[in-house]
Amino acid sequence: MLDIKFVRENPEIVKENIKKKFQDRKLPLVDEVIALDEERRAAIARADELRANRNKLSKEIGALMSQGKKEEGMALREQVTAQAKELEELASREKELNDRVTQIMMSIPNIIDDSVPIGKDDSENVEVQRYGEPVVPDYEIPYHTDIMEKFDGIDLESAGRVAGNGFYYLMGDIARLHSAVISYARDFMIDRGFTYVVPPFMIRSNVVTGVMSFEEMDAMMYKIEGEDLYLIGTSEHSMIGKFIDTITPEEELPKTLTSYSPCFRKEKGAHGIEERGVYRIHQFEKQEMVVVCKPEESKMWFDKLWQNTVDLFRSLDIPVRTLECCSGDLADLKVKSVDVEAWSPRQQKYFEVGSCSNLTDAQARRLKIRVKGEDGNYLAHTLNNTVVAPPRMLIAFLENNLQEDGSVLIPQALRMYMGGKDRIVPTK
Fold first, then answer.
1. Strand pairing partners for 322?
2. Which of 34, 55, 145, 320 fits a 20 to 30 Å CA distance from 185?
């Protein structure tokens, strides 16, 4: 969320940014919020004037009463009563204005970084760099659920009966591989100096609206009926929420955290064949990384975060590439975002396995995440990135490590989490 002062002083910059994000429907909101803010500030000024006058009149009333000038004192009391009524009306109007200004400000997108390419949607994202050599073997790579079924490793039919579409049972070596990847990712990030955290898997509505846009909230979040609680779509939500309404001493920054959680998402809309199986699902597990830092360090941390994901995938011999997300593909709170995509030998193309985002002070402003510096308090910057998110990551892992005989090689880095196995062998 932007600072209303910035919007007031730079309306054309805000409007141009909205155009870059292809959200022209929001252009009228800029002038509307400036007008509402002006009315709000006028209401506040009038209320302050009335309070000061009330205090002055109260002293005068006291003096008149002590002098026996009851009639004059009562006349002033009538003025105080009339002004009290006006104050009450102003307070009500001020609350209405505050609520509307906040609502609009939470709809106006953050100012994107100058380096972000301009484009309408993810089809216009720009490839930055490739890591590792993509390989297409001379034998067939089956669809990922077909690979898993050879190991008796997945049961979508039973999951459908139990929970509906978008759920799954993982079993045997495939389930163990899933857990091994999560455990490896946890230790990988701990070795890079991050503090391991298991956060709450449900959060309150004020945290939800603090960490994401209304559009994201509607498309992603499951609400607990009858309670002010939502299931998290990613542990970033509760991890950033951990710092709500706090003031952290500057010398304690950065906060570098890596968190494990299940994730729950509505995943609205129809999806093609490549997004079935366990690619786009309602429940999955993820290892996340979150950083809370000083503003001048957020660009540096952004590059470190996406590099961590690249390094993890390369340590498992999976070719990846990075994509710079274009303006139209950025959620409203994001200033800059890079996706990490893994190579799919079956599709002979890359697909998304992680996303790194710099939100600068947008979440901090909404959640009042502040830093105590030498010259006073200021807003922190927040960043997040996927370390790894199986079972989607398993698609890349299985395809890139599948052998012609149907076995799957286990890279050296994962073997200690797989009981020392150097490969898993299909049961069918």
1. 129, 340
2. 145
